Chromodomain helicase DNA binding protein 1
Amino acid sequence: PDYLCKWQGLPYSECSWEDGALIAKKFQKCIDDYMSRNQSKTIPSRDFKLLKQRPRFVPMKKQPSYIGSDGLELRDYQLDGLNWMAHSWSKGNSCILADEMGLG
């Protein structure tokens, strides 16, 4: 099958359909990971106890290693937003972080 590819660093409007054989040669692990997630039967229900017992919030003083790549670094206000969202999650609150149009 062909794959709809969202390219890192490009907006969704630049997604493109790519030949399945070519994508499988270069990104087979990504395909396998996707298939595994897609076929998983372990989606937690709302009654799942671990989701009700959230860990205590500990503010992040610096950017976690799992965020960003190739020297990309969060700005101070982005780290503040990440902390706010993590704090809201730890309290069991739903939230949306948004800014005014054009502020990035």
